[in-house]
Structures are given as C-alpha cells and as structure tokens.
Amino acid sequence: MNDKSFTLGVLTSGGDAPGMNACIRAVVRTGIANNCRVIGVSNGFDGLINGEFRDLGPRDVGGILQRGGTILQTRRSDLFREARGQREAIRRMNEAGMDGLVVIGGDGSLNGAFALHNQGIKVIGVPGSIDNDIWGTNISIGVDTAMNTIMEAVDKLRDTASSHGRAFLIETMGRGSGYLAAMAGIVCGAEIILIPEVQITVEEVADAIEDAYKRGKTHAIIINAEGSGHKTAELAQALDDMDVGFKTRVTILGHIQRGGSPTAYDRLLASQMGVKAVEGLLAGTSGMMTGLKGRGVDYVALEEVLSHKRTVNLDYYNMARTLAR
Ligand code: F6P
After folding, report:
1. For ligand 1, what atom is nearest to the CA of residue 106?
2. Residue 152: count of CB within 10 angstroms of its CB
3. Is pTM beyond 0.90 here?
4. Chain-centre distance of CA 212, in angstroms?
5. DSSP letters for 7-54
6. Quick check: is 316 in a domain?
7. Residues lining ligand 1, CB < 6 A?
8. CATH number for the domain including 79?
9. Do 178 and 138 share a structural domain?
10. Same domain, yes or no: 123 and 225
11. How far is the CA of 15 from the centre of ligand 1 (A)?
C-alpha cells in the first residue's frame, strides 16, 4: 500500500555525465521531504519498458554525491524510440502508480521525455550531457567536470610535448558540438582548434603549427573535436608529411571525459536542477526542462528545447585563436 501523496519516478538515460548521481540524490531527498514515494528506474527507458523499479529512500542515495556515473545505470534505448516501446513503458508506469517522472539525460533522452508528456504522462527533463549541446540552459550537468578532465590531461600532455619539442593532436568528445574543444582551446592554450561549427583545411592547420614553430614555441597543442570532420590519425599523418617543424603525437581522450568525481560546480548545478524538477512535478508542471539562465534555474518548454540546436559561441573560438599568439 502506498500512503504517499505522490509517486515519483527518476531515471538516467543516454551517455552518463558526472553529477547525475548528485541529481538523483536531490530528486529522492526532495521527493521524500514532500511526502512522495520515490521509485528509481534502472537502465534508462529500457528499464521503464521492463519495469525495473525499486523504491529509493534517503539512505539509498547516501554517499553518491561525489561519485561519477549513475547508480541507476543508463542505456541508449532503441525500443523506446518506437510507439510500442513507449506504450509498454506507460503501462508499466501506470501499474506502479507513478504520477510523474524525472528524466536526466541528453538530447535523445529529452526527446523520450517529450514523447511521454505528449501521451499524458507528467515529465520534467534535466539536461545531463558532457557535450553542452542542449538548448535552453547555459550549461548541462557534467560539462564542467569533463572540461576539468580535459584540462588536466592537456596540461600533462603539454609537459611532454614541451620536453620533446612536439605537437600534440588531442581529440575531444562532443558529438556534433565544438563546445568542449573550443573551451579547452582557451583553458589549455591550444595553437589551433578544429570544431564542427568552423571548417578549416589541413593546410590551414599546418600553417598555424609551422607559424608557431617559427615564432619560437617549444611545442604545439592542437585540439580536434570528434565531430570536426577531420579524422585525428589522418590529420596527424598529414601534418608529419607536410613537415611543420614539430613531429606530431596523438591522444584520443575518449570516455575518460565522461568519468570521475563531479566538480563543485556540477554538484551544485545537479542539486539545484533535481530540486527544481521535483518542485515542478508537484506543482503540476509537465513537458518542461530545468535550465540555468542568468543566476538561477528555471523551466523551459521541452518543445522549445528540442526545436533548437545549441551551437558554440564563436567568440570563444576567436578568443582562443587570438590568445594563441
Ligand atoms: O553524448 C555524450 C558522448 O560522450 C559524446 O560526446 C560521444 O560522441 C558519445 O557520447 C559516445 O557515446 P558512447 O558512449 O555510446 O560511445
């Protein structure tokens, strides 16, 4: 028997992001503080379809604030993209008496949240993705930690690059967004950055590196966003073939960028957004995402979020180029 006033579900979906656990904790504890029953859904939308539910109390989310990953596990669900997957999930939610759901994840996950909202389920999305490609929020959960991970890695690579007089070509994640690469370009002092939003040729990269060599630099850092259109290994080979002064080495940062303990900023953002999501559901709000605007977290319609693409601010890209002199 459930004597609680509201039954709340929470799931994480898509690529994990540091801070998701802090958000789950905030959802659970805000829910409990408001006399809700809170159900944790394992394995994202797949878990919703399969009824992988467990009750979560305040002690179940103890000691997770500082942990990367997600205690609820996450999946990229193909079945949920189909109407029959969504129908099954709604049936499971009704069976469990779920009155509302918090979906923590990236673009694809927010699409799933919107699909449920359009079928009468109360849903609030929380942006969690290292890519920072989600419209309607200045920043998503996980971005700051990923940035710091990239910065630490590039700082280390610069030590060895400088000792050997080499160029390092470093590939960052971000899917179709150049945000991580552009920001890394500023905070790590890259000579040149390749991002999907700005097309540059191999010759332009070679010129920039050769120029840096001639100006007396002891090393060169090149950041290549995975979605830039340039294959990292091929670009490195081309630079060596063109003899730009420095020999090139490659590091692909990969999934290291998704792991690790969330920074203070991500813990704070995730906590604020988790609280706001529950408050919204309890107030009868649905079809919204929590977004950081100005100094606070507010709601933004999922319809608006999903009909726009957040692209990198090119002022940052240009700033990085100026500062590379
Ligand atoms: O969306 C987050 C992200 O890490 C992207 O930057 C990357 O392209 C993708 O996920 C990798 O996905 P997977 O972990 O499924 O290989």
Report:
1. 1
2. 13
3. yes
4. 33
5. EEEEEEESS--TTHHHHHHHHHHHHHHTTEEEEEESSHHHHHHHT-EE
6. no
7. 15, 106, 129-131, 173-175, 226, 258
8. 3.40.50.450
9. no
10. no
11. 6
What's the 262 CA to ligand 1 centre distance in angstroms? 18
Task: Please tell me the distance from the alpha carbon of residue 15 to that of residue 195, in angstroms, as a whole number.
Answer: 21
Residue whose tokens read 């129908």: 87
Ligand 1 binding pocket mutation candidate from 134, 258, 312 (most atoms within 8 A of CB): 258
Are 87 and 160 contained in the same domain? no
Q: Is 324 part of a structural domain of the chain?
A: no
Going by alpha carbons, the residue nearest to atom 8 of ligand 1 is 175
- For residue 133, the ligand 1 atom closest to its alpha carbon is 1
Which one of 16, 46, 107, 131 is the catalytic residue?
131
The verdict on residue 152 lying in a domain is: yes
**Which of ligand 1's atoms lies nearest the C-alpha of 257?**
4
pLDDT of the chain, 325 residues: tens digit per residue? 467 789 999 999 999 999 999 999 999 999 999 999 999 999 999 999 999 999 999 999 999 999 999 999 999 999 999 999 999 999 999 999 999 999 999 999 999 999 999 999 999 999 999 999 999 999 999 999 999 999 999 999 999 999 999 999 999 999 999 999 999 999 999 999 999 999 999 999 999 999 999 999 999 999 999 999 999 999 999 999 999 999 999 999 999 999 999 999 999 999 999 999 999 999 999 999 999 999 899 999 999 999 999 989 999 999 999 998 8
Question: What's the CA dihedral at 126, 127, 130, 131 to 10 degrees?
Answer: 160
Distance between Cα 7 and ligand 1 center (Å): 32
Ligand 1 center–CA 11 separation, angstroms: 18
Specify the number of domains making up the chain: 2
Q: Is 131 a catalytic residue?
A: yes
Phi, psi of 194 (to 5 degrees): -115, 120
Do 131 and 269 lie in a common domain?
yes
